[in-house]
Design goal:
CATH architecture of the largest domain: 3-Layer(aba) Sandwich
Number of strands: 11
InterPro entries: Thiolase, Thiolase-like, Thiolase_C_2, Thiolase_CS, Thiolase_N
Protein name: propanoyl-CoA C-acyltransferase
CATH class of the largest domain: Alpha Beta
Structural class: alpha/beta
Keywords: Acyltransferase, Lipid transport, Lipid-binding, Transferase, Transport
GO molecular function: acetyl-CoA C-acyltransferase activity; lipid binding
EC number: 2.3.1.176
CATH superfamily of the largest domain: Thiolase/Chalcone synthase
Number of domains: 2
Strand content: 15-25%
CATH topology of the largest domain: Peroxisomal Thiolase, Chain A, domain 1
Largest sheet: 9 strands, mixed
Length: about 375
Amino acid sequence: MSKDDVYVIGTDMIKFGRFPDRTVPDLGAEAALLALDDAGLGIKDMQALYCGNLFQASGMVGQRILHQIGQTGIPVVNTANACATGATAFREGWIAIKAGLYDLVLAVGVEQMGRGLLGGGGSDKGIPTEGLLGSGTMPTVFAELGMEHHKKHGTSFEQFAKVAVKNHHHSTMNDKAMYQKETPLEEVMGAEMISYPNTKLMCSVNVDGSAAAVLASEKKVKELGLMDRAIKVRASALTSDPFTDRDLVMPDFSTCTRMAAQQAYEMAGVGPEDLDLVELHDCFATAEILHYENLGLCKDGEAGKMIDTGATALGGKIPVNVSGGLLSKGHPLGATGIANVYEIVTHLRGKAGKRQVEGARMGMTHVVGMGNAAAIHILEKP
């Protein structure tokens, strides 16, 4: 694989929400055009398209996006990898440029979700009470993981709830987030209990959305004169769980993330102490706490202290999910991974407005799909 660096030269996302009158290709096309405009390029300049979509994946969504923005005969790769779908599409584009196949590619992530809870299959009626379904639903799985963390490290209901308070506060500064509403601690803890310790305000929001990014080789970036605004992809890692001979009663959402983090840090030649901000997979408040440790942002057992001290809030030592995260910005599965890239790039460019992480030069994106796919990207301002 080529050692030439790969850069993001254009990226954007639509405001996440619910758009029942629009199609998935229409949503994806909007983000694609926004990202192309950000790069100052057109679809005729792209040499390949990588499209991430989960629920409508059988419909050749990438090709249908091209029906709307221009059919130029380029190769299209459609990816589906649970919540890591968008990040996988982005990574495939990165790999293709690294391999020397192309100099300019477009990555798009798009999803149209129903109302209800994550794992509800897009049903407008949501999910019945946890007890009727057992422990297979995502709210319950992440509740169990949170309770395991409580058992090992004493993490409290209040500490988990503080994650939601923080991320909802961050969302008030992000006009592309689905919700932009403060939720005081008492409100979060007193909200409808979905699966203890996750209340309704501690669960990610199922929304429709799309995000896109234009990736380029270093040669092409210099040729276009865009080096002053290009963001380098320092590392890209994608893992799945290794074999284990023990019976798992629930997916393991930690092992593949720890593996991906180690690979990404090694590839980038940096450590967690070098990061200025992180967009991680807070599908539930309990998940964010676990991933502080999985990503090496703190030692095992210290995640509760991180949220108590404000270390992961805007202005803290290592701000996490300043976009509002999946809890407020929303979680359209196929779009999330690239939306995270958009957020980090925006900060590294110094264009994040009120939520800007001052002096940000390096950031990480992280998503995990069904406990068996973890994707991490480290991005840097050259």
